[in-house]
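Study this:
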Amino acid sequence: MAQLTENIAFYEQQAKSGSIDPFYYDRLMVYYRKHKEYKKELILINKALKTFADHFKKQTDEILAVAKSKAAIKRLSEKINRSAGLVDKKGNPHYMPEPMVRWIKRKKTVQEKISRSKSL
């Protein structure tokens, strides 16, 4: 039991620091789910989604920063994405990296559980 408490404290510390490893977030979500702490789990899911979205945006900005012709690369990327079906007409992506898809689905479930518990 002491080892579990130490692990949870470590996972929470990593999540607060904004770690990019999905393992810490997943383990904390499982822990909160088993202990029926849905509000904490929802807060963690939102934090994880924001952290990963910021990370992916930062990655693309870094790639474009080293390019000589940013406008041309951006325009070409948008055309390739549209022709390959990776984005819709408005430019919203159809594809999301794996942990984010799973977390968005879990977020909907947690929100439903919270709303059901309020109605009872």
